[in-house]
Structure formats: structure tokens, C-alpha cells
Write a structure and sequence with these properties.
The chain is an all-alpha fold. It has nine helices and no strands.
């Protein structure tokens, strides 16, 4: 069976929440076409939903290596790294996603990119770097237009600073 057919069937199994079957199909597709970032990304998502975070992280890293200019892959990797309590790695992935994404016209229009600001603000807050967290919420407010969420979070953080 060609890798595209395996991938299509894996997506169908994923939709049905048959993650083990989807993983098996994706592994077969990857054997046939190992440098396809999309396959590795989808494999990472399957592992994520199974709470197999080490394999999810490895899959997203591999996807990033095959498509290093895709900021959304770096954001997915950062989310897994945060779940795995790897804040420094997550911050590095988010910064890379931001630097790549800022070069595209769609950065401010794509809601997935907005996660960069929210995730970085959470990391900075956890590090008790409240001023940087406020800056990230402010950036989120500017790109998303969600002034109420950002203002609430900024007020909350300002109370922690004072």
C-alpha cells in the first residue's frame, strides 16, 4: 500500500480514536517515506492523545527537522515540552516559531500563532518573571484583539508584582 494511502487510513483511524491502529499505519507510511514531516507530526499527535509524551516529543522533533521553517510544528513541539516540564526547551521552540512566523504575512491572522504569546507568558510567570509575562500578554492582545483577556491577566500579574 502506498504511503499516502496508509496516511489517509491512519487519519481515519485517528478520527475514530483508534490511536494504536493509527500509529501502526503511520509507522508503515514512515518506513516508505521517512522524510515526510506531516507523517511525523501526525504520529506525534497520536502519541499525545495517548499521553505518550516522550514519543510525541520525538515525533515533533523529527517533523521539525524535516520542515524547520514551519512555525506551527515548533509550537506543537513546545506544547509537548511544556507538558513534560521542559520549560527552557519549550521557550527555545516558541522563540524559534516566533522568529519564523514573524516572517510570514499570516502570523497575526493565524490563531495558532497566538499560542506563542500565551505559552511564553505562562513560562515567564512560572519563572516569576512577571514583567516579561505582561509583555507577552500585551503582544497577545495586539495580535488577537482579545483586549479583555489580556487586560485581566495583566492586572492579575501586576498584583503579583506589587
Amino acid at each position: 500500500m502506498p504511503d499516502k494511502n496508509l496516511f489517509h487510513e491512519a487519519k481515519e483511524q485517528y478520527r475514530k480514536k483508534n490511536f494504536e491502529q493509527a500509529i501502526a499505519l503511520l509507522q508503515q507510511a514512515i518506513k516508505l517515506n521517512e522524510n515526510k514531516a506531516e507523517y511525523h507530526c501526525f504520529l506525534g499527535s497520536c502519541y499525545w492523545y495517548k499521553s505518550d509524551f516522550p514519543n510525541a516529543e520525538e515525533s515533533f522533533k523529527t517533523a521539525c527537522s524535516f520542515d524547520p521553517e514551519n512555525p506551527l510544528l515548533h509550537i506543537k513541539l513546545a506544547k509537548i515540552q511544556l507538558i513534560s516540564n521542559k520549560e527552557a526547551d519549550a521557550l527555545q521552540s516558541l522563540n524559534l516559531a516566533s522568529s519564523i512566523g514573524m516572517q510570514t504575512d499570516s502570523f497575526e491572522e493565524n490563531e495558532e500563532f497566538w499560542d506563542v504569546f500565551l505559552l511564553r507568558s505562562a513560562i515567564y510567570e512560572n519563572q516569576r518573571n512577571y514583567l516579561k509575562a505582561v509583555e507577552e500578554y500585551d503582544r497577545f492582545s495586539l495580535v488577537s484583539g482579545s483586549k479583555d483577556i489580556a487586560e485581566r491577566e495583566i492586572k492579575r500579574l501586576m498584583m503579583l508584582i506589587c
